[in-house]
Amino acid sequence: MPRHRIFATAFAKVYPMYVQKAERKNRTKEEVDQVIRWLTGYDQAGLQRQIAQEKDLETFFAEAPAMNPNSSLIKGVVCGVRVEEVDDPLMQKIRYLDKLVDELAKGRKMEKILRQQD
């Protein structure tokens, strides 16, 4: 199966789109960063390094310090796809991030976006 071209896309290319989407809905870059850090385990310096070094999405997720164990609680549809049903593990991580930014832009409260085990 051919690799999806999104995997080779620089995280630095999609990151500004996430920020713009959030800012259009009166959310902040800081909130976008918080969501990304929650999902991937990067600290702010590590996140900035990934952007500055223009790592592709595959590398960005491969080098993530620790995917949040609660990321499996992310459910729902993004781009017409149920995130919990995505087979490819890398594509699923990308969709998780899309979904979190989506929820941020839709005005969900941060404590709801950053899933916690009950």
UniProtKB/TrEMBL annotation:
Origin superkingdom: Bacteria
Official protein name in the record = DUF2200 domain-containing protein
State the species of origin.
Variovorax beijingensis
